[in-house]
Amino acid sequence: MEELNKKGELARQATYFLARMSSDEKKRVLNKTAGLIVDRTGYILEANKKDLAEAEKNQVKGSLLDRLTLTSDRIASMAEGLSQVAMLEDPVGEVISMKKRPNGLQIGQIRVPIGVIGIIYEARPNVTVDAAGLCLKTGNAVILRGGKEAINSNIAIVKTIQEALVSEGVPPEAVQLVEDTGRETAVAMMRLNEYLDILIPRGGQGLIKTVTENSSVPVIETGTGNCHAFVDETANLEMASRIVINAKTQRPGVCNAIETLLVHSSVADIFLPGICDRLKELNVEIRGDRNVTEIIGYAVPATEEDWYTEFLDLILAVKVVPSLSDAILHINKYGSKHSETIVTESYHSSQKFLAEVDAAAVYVNASTRFTDGFEFGFGAEIGISTQKLHARGPMGLKELTTTKYIIFGNGQIR
Amino acid sequence: MEELNKKGELARQATYFLARMSSDEKKRVLNKTAGLIVDRTGYILEANKKDLAEAEKNQVKGSLLDRLTLTSDRIASMAEGLSQVAMLEDPVGEVISMKKRPNGLQIGQIRVPIGVIGIIYEARPNVTVDAAGLCLKTGNAVILRGGKEAINSNIAIVKTIQEALVSEGVPPEAVQLVEDTGRETAVAMMRLNEYLDILIPRGGQGLIKTVTENSSVPVIETGTGNCHAFVDETANLEMASRIVINAKTQRPGVCNAIETLLVHSSVADIFLPGICDRLKELNVEIRGDRNVTEIIGYAVPATEEDWYTEFLDLILAVKVVPSLSDAILHINKYGSKHSETIVTESYHSSQKFLAEVDAAAVYVNASTRFTDGFEFGFGAEIGISTQKLHARGPMGLKELTTTKYIIFGNGQIR
Known about the structure:
Two copies of one chain form a homodimer.
Chain A: H1 2-20, H2 23-39, H3 41-57, H4 62-68, H5 72-87, E1 95-100, E2 106-113, E3 116-121, H6 126-137, E4 141-145, H7 151-167, E5 175-177, H8 183-190, E6 198-202, H9 205-214, E7 227-231, H10 237-249, E8 258-264, H11 265-281, E9 285-288, H12 290-295, E10 300-301, H13 304-308, E11 315-321, H14 324-334, E12 339-343, H15 347-356, E13 361-366, E14 383-385, E15 393-395, E16 401-412
Parallel strand pairs in A: 3-4, 3-6, 4-5, 7-8, 7-12, 8-11, 9-10, 9-11, 12-13
Antiparallel strand pairs in A: 1-2, 2-16, 14-15
Helix pairs in contact in A: 2-5, 2-7, 3-7, 5-6, 10-11
């Protein structure tokens, strides 16, 4: 993988330039890039056409084809995304703490870029622009390795970005694309410890699992959301109904939608018939435990497997639990530690749920659909971390930085 | 590895108990453990004797034998360490931020235990007590896998800790030891993603490299320190001399000692003879580039390999550089991103060095020997991270925690 080592070396060189850029300079480069992407719309669409022709030849299915397709509007919206990132506050340079030690040493912790970030992703060409923008903003060099389906689009996009970089005096190697989309280049990236500081996989569960299991480069794991809503015995049932409908049906294909509804046994009889009928009207299939199937005639019996499954579809597993503790046990056993919500009017139940549920985001009386960098007010999102190291939950710009200690002395020795 | 899965499952169960413990309860358990370790001194020394007998039979060399050896004093000092950890402030439960969003959602970020921590280490039995104490303090369960040389000591120590846990009503599985010290158990731990949230290797470079390369569990890399001191053209040479002597000779076998001295060419002629003579008196071998060997008759020519080497010994590589920029280039190329210091009276040079050197701890006018959790005022240290994810530099209690988002709503949906 000599090409990859070369790219790594050049990316590392670029980091020294990037780390020295001021926030104003980075803002200017991002705005310049946004403008040039719009200017080059024709060129990028041309390249995208090649990818689409290839995809049609390979009989790629509708939803994938849609994700691959660029239009003038979509390109304009990618550029708009860059302009928005340009306007965000730059996290680099923030002094997080600064303390004077008894020996007079002044020890500070300052936020700095991570260095070189590798991103392995699948068919969406918008990830190319998005990831490049977030990395530039945080002073990181990035090596992008997209899917083969979008290779022509990605080449055109990265060439455009590099043209903008060069015109602003930034090394073009700050944003590089791996053009060889064979499996070997992905594997080689997972072993590129010499040059890559971190690796972020963006895509389906299969991709994320492969990267997590095989990478010796530190990985930020994003993604899987097997989320739950628990309706407590004291819940405002009208509110519970709204939250469950929203969390399941507003956008079922995303990670922060719920997959399982847990209902306290003391309200099961009065809550389940209404909510299930409304879900049925919205074409949601109900898979219930025995208690549920006894109450709801059209509910399908749920299997053990169902409790573990992220359906990403209009399917909801439903279970009646005898207590809050049982709900928490279920969530901690079957959940993927993403987003969990309780609907309750009880102070004690809310506190217990918040304290004992082990997940990136734990809600009281709100839909799980809010777990998102934009909804959290970060202004950007590189993914939602479901691991516990470095970042947990929605990752914004800050999560693309690290820190270093800076120590001011006047001759101290030990 | 059924035994390991079983331990993992039990450790996971214990985390739910640990996460609910108050700071006062954890303090009481740590103090109880400290007391019991002193009470069981005879029992632990007995077990240690078996390890020492085995080590002598295998003709283990002196320094390793010393590290393995326990005495009443050493056991008392291990217990004293626990009492000190007991007194530190508990990082768990700190609300790092809490903001109200325009839609009324209140989004907070709270510090919580990581969960189950795996620690793979080598011969020192004190690591067993130390790691157990830090994990308990932060509400984490720990699975310890020490070296075979210390197995009997470790079994006795962990039994004692578990006895203290049980007497305080804490699940003994909060602290578990892997008694099978075969290579396979270490490998199995690196793949125990289902139960281990993170893995920390503590030991030599070989161990750390093996774990980093083979673990699919997220790893915190600690250790290697190829550190530099740069004497700038404006340096107070008397101060430079004190710092270099201290950083090289006060304790040469540790990671924050310097391995290479870089000297600005404009002060090489006046600085090098004096410092080298003093180092020679202290039995330090000088390995110099051509400029150095021309000035210092007894300097050995340095090889390319020497610039990369963490000698951990009374050896110092010395190089003359034409500028500050060249010093920074050298450090960023050959260093291990641990601790770096500049001695200078120039504002510009200090700022440039702090900004451009890529390392966990960057110093102006002080010895690199201060990179240490205790010297930084953390009151404890689990290791010094040289990676950029999660923690960088000395890791104290805070670095053994993660965060979760807690969200307070009143019916919000998207």
